[in-house]
């Protein structure tokens, strides 16, 4: 790797940051050791290759245009209990806007490195252009670059931290954010009803309309000459509330761990959102809804782009299981406290949620 393709991204990173795009352009047929995952974590041939979305071997598809809202809520409820994941179609966000948002962000990752590096991030907030999570020196790296930004609360949103090129990006991202927040509010209402609660309960636990948090991570996975050795994002569950993922229609990559522990490759439905429950909804629903592990495989033939929109509880609000849903399996904690750990250590499967559950069990035993 030449020194010109390394960037020391400011205070906080333990070693120079290398852009995966630069590695992909220069590494030839062999990926550097840092990207090679231990054998047990590599994509396996046992990952199923299901048919079109919606069959038993793939996450469910929920049509949000069904006339009976109770039926939609029931379908989402079943999906959250069984899979923690589903795709939504006829969700009300215009396909034209989905395409504009995707094209704008693809345009950013195609800018010259000198333009992209103006937005290089640091681990203090992660906002901006990044290539790693966590600050452990010498650890494994994922085969993907990303851009992370805040949309809500309004005080955290700052357009000057968003790329100014391509010129369509800020407007498309602003409009996309507004529309996806509306969709998150509708889905949150249906999940509350699915849990047998008043429709506004989850929303209230998130801080109410206008009080919630929202941020976005745009992932860019360059072509990889040895996709069987690495991952675009290692296995993790999402720390926040609800994730709305928009992926390339024609490139697969997302894998979800099913109830039997097998990795299932999601077959994206064009113009759908892939929705998944995050750790905060697992806590609020007292584990009725599952925040499920997922990971991303990469391709030798095609690069891939995804927009992961995270809808979260207000970060300083205590989050605890809803009292109606049985004896609490988790202790109360703010989202700020919860994610501080992840920002230090990076994503690691479901380790953090399991640690919380153990802490709650010990506290109960001691009382
Ligand atoms: O790119 C994808 O399909 C998923 C990305 C993801 O899991 C994440 O950004 O947390």
TrEMBL record:
One GO BP annotation of this record: negative regulation of defense response to insect
Biased segments, Basic and acidic residues type: 31-40
Keywords, alphabetical: Iron, Jasmonic acid signaling pathway, Metal-binding, Oxidoreductase, Plant defense
InterPro entries assigned: DIOX_N (IPR026992), IPNS-like_FE2OG_OXY (IPR044861), IPNS-like_sf (IPR027443), Oxoglu/Fe-dep_dioxygenase_dom (IPR005123), Plant_2OG-oxidoreductases (IPR050295)
Region of interest (Disordered), residue spans: 29-63
Cofactors required: L-ascorbate; Fe(2+)
Domain Fe2OG dioxygenase: 212-313
Pfam families tied to this protein: 2OG-FeII_Oxy, DIOX_N
Gene Ontology molecular-function annotations: 2-oxoglutarate-dependent dioxygenase activity; jasmonic acid hydrolase; metal ion binding
Reactions it catalyzes: jasmonate + 2-oxoglutarate + O2 = (1R,2R)-12-hydroxyjasmonate + succinate + CO2
Family stated for the protein in its record: Belongs to the iron/ascorbate-dependent oxidoreductase family.
UniProt name for this protein: Fe2OG dioxygenase domain-containing protein
